[in-house]
Amino acid sequence: MRKDDSAPPPESGSSVSPDRPWFTRRSTLVVGVAALAPAALAGWVLTQVLAGSGSDGQQPRPLPASHSSLSPGQRDAKPGSTPSGSPAAGASTPATPVPAPAPAKGPLAGKTVVVDPGHNTGNFKHTDEIDQQVDIGTGHKECDTTGTTTNSGYMEAEFTYDVSLRLRAALEAQGAKVVLTHQQDRPWGPCITERARIGNEANADAVVSVHADGVSAGSRGFHVILPAKVKGGAADTSKIVGPSRELGERIAGNFARTTGSAPANYLGGGTGLVVRDDLGGLNLSTRPKVFIECGNMRDAKDAAQLTSPEWRQKAAQGIADGIVGFLGG
Ligand code: ZN
Question: How many domains, the chain?
Answer without folding.
Answer: 1
